[in-house]
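Justification of computing resources. Each target in the renewal requires a structure prediction run like the one illustrated here; the chain below, 152 residues long, is used simply to show the kind of job we budget for.
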Amino acid sequence: MKILLATDGTKHSEAAADMVTRMKLSNDDSVRVISVVDMAVPLAVDIYGGYLPDTTELEKTARESASKVVEDAIARLKAELHDAGVSIDGDVLFGSPDSRIVETAEDIHADLIVIGSHGYKRWERLLLGSVSHSVVHHAHCSVLVVRTESAS
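Resulting structure tokens:
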């Protein structure tokens, strides 16, 4: 089974990683951990501000933060799944999180996407969007949306 674990480093993503560790996996299985950096919000501000500031430092910081999130998730999964012999790797991607998650799942021929839910209420979802909702409706494979107790 090929599993794609999407993480943003929050407690919701940690719950999703915990769910992966509870699955019966073996050396025939693999987990790809991704974190997607969305630079669209700062760039939208630039357009309305009338100038285009240098975002190099912002991108570098975002990449470093996402890399740390992926490394931490991989270390956690390897610690829990080391006896199973599961292949675990990761990557940092840039773009729209929901689109990049679905695209990556298609590229690696994932059997399952595991993603945490922030548990947004109606208005929060309207303002912020719901990555998990979009992934569920656009993915070609099964999607496991993991909720935390506070998100229910």
